[in-house]
Amino acid sequence: MTDSLLHDLRLAVRALRRSPGFTAAAALTLALGIGATTAVFGIVDAVLLRPLPYPAPDRLVRLYQGDRHSGTTREGFSTPDFLDLRERSRTIEGAAAFRTRPMALGGEEAERVSATHTSHELFPLLGASPLLGRAYDAAEDSPGGEPVVVLGERLWRRRFGADPAILGRTVLLDDRAHVVVGVLPADFAFPSAETDLWVPLRAAPTSAPRGVHDLGVVARLAPGATLDGARREIATIAAELEAEHPADNEGRDFLAVPLRDALVGDVRPRLLLLLGATTLVLLVACANVAHLLLARATTRSREVAVRTALGATRGRLARQFTVEALVLALLGGTLGVGLAGWALDLLVGLVPGGVPRIEAAAIDGRVLAVVATTLTAVGLVFGLAPAVARREVGLHATLREAGAPGLSASRRRVRARGALVVAEIALAVTLVGGASLLIRSFARLLDVDPGFRAENVVKLDFQLPASRYPQSFSDFPEFPEIRAFHGELLRRVATIPGVSAAAIAVNHPVDPGWTTSFRLEGQTEAEAATQPETSIRIVSPDYFRTVGVPLLRGRLLEPRDDGAAPRVVVVNAAFARRHLSGVDPIGRRIELFGRDHEIVGVVGDERFDGLGAEPPPAVYPPLAQMPLAAGSLLVLAAGRPEAVVPQVRAIFRELDPQLAVFGVEALEETLAGSIAAPRFTALLLGLFAALALALAVVGVHGVLGYTVAQRSREIGIRLALGASRARVTRDVVAEGLRLAALGLALGLAGTLALGHALRGMLFGIGAADPATLLGVAALLGAVATAASWLPARRAAKVDPMTALRGD
Asked: CA end-to-end span of the chain, whole Å?
């Protein structure tokens, strides 16, 4: 048996070498489909399919709070709510809270690092095994505990040269000495791969108000507990806390989501869409190769007939065809995997930030096993198809056909090739239609007015450490050190030549920020408790001029609105429409954080929740009356905004040499980054659609060229009997358009189905957008006509005498 297979293998290699054009065309076509699919599957496998790198990952859940009044379902926990839930739950075996914010790592030059403040339970909960030392314990995680830090491996190697003596050394974080107690490996990427270090959270009932929801919570279900059971229990606990603390927990729900789903989030549908698109490209490529194989089977009809006459059985022929197809699939697959390695690196570089575990994407054994299975299936189908096709024609008919190919082309083979072309076109149209929907949606997104001006504005983020800028909740808002820093920073930046305006915002215009409860003048506490929270945007007075937010009524914030002045706020138009419809907002009073404020102005709406979302209601208190340590400096330059960055950095160093400045980029880049996900999806789906369409065009051209070659004698007779060459051209083009029309009809149906599935990704257009459908139909008509033209011209040039002599 082995010798027989080796013999078949040698025959297959010899046969493919005798047809280098066919072999190259088929292998390259397969390589394109395999390469695209393998690259995308490598990402899908890393992000969606591989188990989470934690013990018993199926029992891990992410916990959220929701607000029934605003409809939100993915808010953070407050510290008191987390502690109460952890104490009361019986279906949860362990829970850990965390909060991520940047810290300044001191040294010769301060560096901003991504720090996660987490309770000590996180490390045993997720099975963290330090490379060096240990994780911090409960005593160090208690209020007043020794300041310690666990470093990430990447930071340890980059900043400390992988020094094994790092344990016990002190490092400055936000100007406070922390003792290094451990180093975690790079593959412990929680809550994200960007995390540089971990420090104790030190959560206590009094460490933050119950109304501040800024904690992430991850938990492990107890043995025997189910997700549904945990959801019922935490819902009961949420109801108990709502009754016990109505002022803070009115309308608050607790929710549990599998940790995998929480990490993947909105990434899943986009990745599955791209995987589906590349699969369609692979199917189109396979249909093209099937064309080539059927055409080649026709040219080998005489060979097969002779071998049959000499005693070769159908099984023997089928095995030979199958071995040839498997060798061809192996060749195309090898080229495709090589192409996939290059494409994967390109895709990983294009993927927007925030995709979990993207750094683990690779063409590894798991991916190669799937590729090998796919190639085997493709090879078997390709190998059996010609053998089955030969069963349709008898030996004598085959010999006659081989002797006079121009007289009787097999109608069955012509129909089979036509069906393959129709399928190719349908798949390509589906892809082109879906890509067109996403591209038009993205174009609509680009046309949206964000409500602010990003041109010529640069942002620089900073975080003032509590060690030098005291910021205790009990003293809020009396933070004189923070106020002084803000004032001096703005004063100095305003003196830089080329600076037109500068402002500080706790959240820059592309940052959604946070929300808070409020009470309007005349509302009861019960009425205020049932209304959705509002966004709060703490800014310095020149913010609106710096980013071009227009004043609609009243006045803007002014320098006189300082800590000693009466408390005032500006609201946006969305707030006025929703909460003050029919009344004059100016002069109305609003309670925020337990203090009354007067509304002195109404400004335009900013889309800080994203260009695809409606502007939410927002309140703008002056920074001097609510000074917070974190913020973004926004600088409007007369020319290129990057030109003023060195001088602004110098001012930061003069004011505080140990302060780390980060997130430095033009606001236009920040805005562009906010729509990176839809841009990435539209771009890749468009590329895959173009590839599928190109392959479909090749298929139309190929099947018509084959038909013309088979019907050359018939065409010659028609020309000899007086048919015009223009008529022959029209007939061939009409045949191509007939196939295209059938494929278009099926493809438009596929586009409608795909558009329905894409509804959550579309903005400003419907799933059955008429302009998209008409555009796709026009595009296909144009390319189908072009693909049909060359075979039609060849048909019109047939010499009647040559064709008749060929008989």
From this structure: 44
